[in-house]
User: Fold this.
Amino acid sequence: MNKVAVARYSEVADRKPAHALIANVDLVIVRFDDSVSVLYGRCAHRDALMSDGVVSGENLLCGVHYWDYRYDTRVSEYNNSESLYKFQSWIENDEILVDEDEIKEWTKANPQPFNREEYLGQYADTHPVAEEDKVGEIQHLAKFGLTKWGHHGNSAAMGVPRTEHPRWDDIQILTGQLHKLPLFDDAEVATELVIGPNTKKPLHLKIPLFVSDMSFGALSEEAKISLAQGAERAGTGIYLFR
Ligand code: FES
Assistant:
């Protein structure tokens, strides 16, 4: 056992969480009346510092999403399966003491991922969730500004997710209609299409399909030229976006 002081008892306000760091482990100290609890200082939800939280009734509440832990028993009243580890503590000669050996032992099963030397390392997001997919990007910007992305910021090619592309099934070719009689099977059917027939420069296509939409930049010059030549041979055009 190696008892070390984490705070002066007389300086810890009643029911006001205080922070301590021992063996690279964040602790939260809660004094209540003549007693003290020293708990692991990071929320079981997403690792926020519990010393940034508040005490409400008999609960220590995380300041981020309000997960609760009883400061005396360490267990959540709301969900008993959630808890913070409680370390042994003593009050001696106006000092609050913990056993550094116990904390070091605890870290073997609970290694701490926080690099405090790094900017924002104390507040690393160790439980990223899909709903907050931009947090990493925001923190990257906070850390490096635009130095890693260039002065235009993060940019990506325009595009449409493959699942949202129109498919052949979406092109509905009516085989019969009411205001004209259907053609016989062997009748010639024209596929020409004119876009903007009343404009100065109508666009005449031989087929009702058009090549779209990746921009020059998203695709190389060679790829764009190849697509344009292919479109021309097929009797259609290509959308050119720069
Ligand atoms: S991080 Fe504590 S409640 Fe979400």
